[in-house]
Amino acid sequence: MSNVFRVPVGDRTWQRRGQSAHSPDAQGDAPRLPGIVAGVLAPHPPHLLYAENPPQNEPRSEGGWEVLRWAYEDLRQRIRAMDVDVIVLHAPHWITMVGHHVNCVPNPRGFSVEPIFPHLLRYEYAFHTDVELAEAIADQAHDDGLVTRKMRNDGVRVDYATITALHLLNPDWDIPVVSLSANNNPYFYSTSSLDQMHVLGESTRKAIESLGRRALVAGSNSLSHLHWDREQGLPEDMTYEHAYNHHQYRWDMRFLELIRQGRTRELRDLIPEHIDETESETKAGSLTWMLSALGWPEGIGEVLAYGTVIGTGNAVCLWDLEKGAR
Ligand code: 2X7
Ligand code: FE2
């Protein structure tokens, strides 16, 4: 494997089953290598989905939050070009108090309602789980010492953060998914205890590699997380949308500068401080899980957009491990 095209992230002595790991893809360009192809920070405020007016969502809007939505549009094209087998997502509003749960339901379908903003998100969803990978992640995480659970209850409603992030990443829903819960327990008595998320990220990577999947890993977190508690008329009236305060904004910028400059080691150290300063939603661990799965790659990282949603900071970011290969 060429280091020019991929940042090394662990042992890759396996091969995709039934396919040479070095065979060119259908277009004949870059080799379609198995493993984690890229990681994204994919925020999930329901406002972004509401503003898109997809047919699956009942409420209608006049738009809003365009800069973030245009970044998602750009990201979707890049994901298409990556040609991944699966999107593995960690999102903070499927909260599990005991253990890290993995959705192993083959075809989750139902109606997802945002409990705080039901006037923005009432979404009819149906997607496919990569069950083999979901089980492999749960097994690997268990072997690595984490409390895990394979969630097999067909009727359980999928939370709005998972639905929103997945819709914005792939509104066609034609890429299989693995959805991971956010285990609240480790940080219940502390502001920023992310140790288990490092392990879960590594377990995720090992499972992806052992099955030879070509995967996108998506951590779904907002950044600074103080927000308004009153809605002023029309939710998409952008004259009310701005950072909660200067302190929150400055800390988000400090955070994003490190991402833009590819200074991932420093970012890793800054995450707990950023949480303490801004109540960042990265406290739920999705970003740490994602970067740990990528192996904390130095020298890459793109901020596609930053914008606020009811005062919270949100950034769409990409760590493309194959950048230059496509
Ligand atoms: O879940 C969210 C969020 N993280 C940020 C802003 C608004 C609503 O929902
Ligand atoms: Fe959230």
Automatic annotation (TrEMBL):
All copies of domain Extradiol ring-cleavage dioxygenase class III enzyme subunit B, residue ranges: 41-312
Domain of life: Bacteria
Any one Pfam family match given in the protein's UniProt record, by short name: LigB
Keyword entries, A-Z: Dioxygenase, Oxidoreductase
Enzyme class: oxidoreductase
Region span, Disordered: 1-33
GO molecular function: ferrous iron binding; oxidoreductase activity, acting on single donors with incorporation of molecular oxygen, incorporation of two atoms of oxygen
Catalytic activity, EC: 1.13.11.74, 1.13.11.76
InterPro entries cross-referenced by the UniProt entry: Xdiol_dOase_suB
Name of the protein in question: 2-aminophenol/2-amino-5-chlorophenol 1,6-dioxygenase beta subunit
Species assigned in the record: Nocardioides soli
Lineage: Bacteria, Bacillati, Actinomycetota, Actinomycetes, Propionibacteriales
